[in-house]
Design brief:
The chain is an alpha+beta fold and 105 residues long. Helices cover 19% and strands 38% of the residues. It contains 2 helices and 4 strands. The chain has a 4-stranded antiparallel β-sheet, with helices on one face. The protein is elongated and about 45 Å long. It starts with 13 loop residues before the first helix and ends in a 6-residue tail after the last strand.
Length: 105
């Protein structure tokens, strides 16, 4: 994962894109890498990974959108990232935004 303002370049080769994703861990890694290339926020982690109907993957990636002091008031967001069976990005969208210190409802 990247630091704030840092962009990943050349992290996925053509050979990697051609072979299917082999498990949830690899799907999570590829989704996080793809999202970090598109947005300039620090990734916090992956909160969910599941198979999609077309045998691809749907991954929820948590992102720090606005850092604040104290840290419990920082704004985070969850992005849903969809990958095809080969691990290529199909789409992504923000599905939630919340304060770090907020409890799940």
């Amino acid at each position: 994962m990247t630091e704030p303002g840092e962009r990943r370049r050349g992290t996925t080769s053509t050979r990697t894109r051609e072979r299917p994703v082999r498990g949830a861990r690899e799907a999570a890694r590829r989704a996080a890498d793809a999202l970090s290339e598109l947005i300039r926020h620090r990734l916090e982690g992956v909160s969910a990974v599941c198979r999609s109907e077309d045998e691809g993957w749907i991954v929820n990636v948590d992102v720090l959108e606005v850092a604040r002091i104290p840290d419990t008031t920082s704004l985070l967001a969850t992005y849903e990232v969809e990958l095809d069976p080969s691990g290529a990005l199909v789409q992504y969208r923000r599905i939630a935004r919340y304060r770090r210190g907020a409890q799940d409802q």
